[in-house]
Amino acid sequence: MTESQKRCPGPVSRRSLLQAGALGMAGFGLSDLFRMRAQAAPSQANSDTSVIFVWLPGGPPHMEMYDLKPQAPSDYRGEFRPIPSVVPGMDLSEHFPLHAKMADKFNIIRSVSHQFAGHGDGMKHFLTGRAPGDPGHFITIHPMVGSMVAKVREGRNLGIPNYVQEADAGRENVDTYGFGAAYLGANHRPFSVVGDPNAAKFQVQNLSLAREMEGRLDDRVALLSGLDRIRRDVDARGSMSALDEFNRRALTLLTSDRARNAFDLSQEPDQLRDRYGRHPWGQRALMARRLVEAGVSFVTVVMENPIPPGQVSPKEVSYNWDSHAVNCHLYNDSLLRFPIYERAIMSLIQDIYDRGLDKKVMLVVSGEFGRTPRITPAIGTATGYMQPGRDHWPQSMSMLVSGGGMRTGQVIGSTNSKGEHPKDRPLTPNDLWATVFRHLGIDYQHTSFPDFSGRPIPILPYGEPISELL
């Protein structure tokens, strides 16, 4: 087997001692978290705005989704055809009929590009806005955007985590995708919601009480008896007044009705849950809407594996969006994951608008790069036969944005006739993040963080808000 035929593993989890949002690790408790945050810089940007960032790791195929080229040569255009949408000029994949009906509620950006073709480098660059540093892994030397938001808004105390990520079990480590907080510190990593929210026994593990925390709260009333008993005991004995400020804030988070309710999907009507899809992606999207509605500033929703836990994946389907021919059959993989993806994203957009959240909440949907415009067939590692695929391609990529009070129903930018590179309105990931920071009320031009040596590092080294979205 040649090097080009070896299976691309895509975004691979690198085991480390620090787990994303694992507040109970090695004796690290919530009270310590709040102490660490209190020692940091003063907060700013306390406006009531939020971001849902849907992460498609591996690199979604832009020429099968949002930038089809029906006039290109056959080895570029592929098998899927575009269909018109309710927005003149916004043609989309024939397998996105819901998109076509709702195109006036979102924008498609077709002209974002960068120069980092590896998963690790591409993710780190896209998510931090900077050169990725050492190649070959997913450990960031600069903080991911969600951690930057958490740092700036660390003064918000709403009884709910300020930064949340939702991911598959075993994929919650911040170094799986380049979600690290770097010099901002572990206390600005995301609060992790792990697993399938649709599972009968699903629970938010980070809201459970670990034994390691028993000695960290001044009031030790029956911690092992569970959340409800703690609430009763604390209220009955008036012990809250005896806790110091940090322990009180920690206990407030653990016993907060606001936090418990925000994560509780059982409060949603079955009809709405069904509309999102009884699939991890759909239920994560619904939970994200609940979280931002409750006040969470930044929610990362990972939509990676289209096969629900416990089900067997077809050999032609990839775990993530990394659609090399050695990994999957590009079209069969897309035919499986596109309907699940479309149902979740379009339901989320409709829900945001139905609930009047379209000015408060900005939705961004993207992976780390696009796919090669030219199809590259190869023998599939799992199937053993020749099948179509596309390789990594950061020179052009497409993304979806919605909400945020922005103008919608637009196609922003374009690529050349073969989808190889931007033709007009070339943009970078940093332009996207400048737009996100503007929505959140964060002064991206004058905000900086001290690195490990104390040197101030600007929140973004460059980038301007995308004017069409303002």
Describe this structure in words.
By secondary structure, this protein is α/β, with parallel strands linked by helices. It has a domain at 50-114 and 161-172 and 269-469: Alkaline Phosphatase, subunit A (3-Layer(aba) Sandwich), CATH 3.40.720. Helix content is 27%, strand content 14%. The protein contains 13 helices and 18 strands. The protein has helices at 30-38, 62-65, 74-77, 97-102, 119-128, 145-152, 227-237, 245-255, 257-262, 270-276, 280-294, 330-354, 429-440, and strands at residues 50-55, 82-83, 92-93, 106-112, 163-167, 191-194, 298-302, 361-366, 370-371, 378-379, 386-387, 392-393, 397-403, 410-412, 414-415, 422-424, 448-450, 456-458. The strands form 6 sheets. The chain has an 8-stranded mixed β-sheet, with helices on both faces. A two-stranded antiparallel ribbon has the order 2-3. Strands 9-12 form a two-stranded antiparallel ribbon. β17 (448-450) and β18 form a beta hairpin. The longest helix is centred in the last third of the chain and has 25 residues, at 330-354. The protein is globular, with a radius of gyration of 22 Å.
Strand content range: 5-15%
CATH class of the domain at 50-114 and 161-172 and 269-469: Alpha Beta
Can you count the helices?
13
Radius of gyration: 22 Å
- Structural class by secondary-structure content: alpha/beta
Overall pLDDT confidence:
85
CATH topology of the domain at 50-114 and 161-172 and 269-469: Alkaline Phosphatase, subunit A
Low-confidence stretches: 13-44, 209-225, 237-246
What is the first-to-last residue Cα distance? Answer: 51 Å
Sheet bearing the most strands, described? 8 strands, mixed
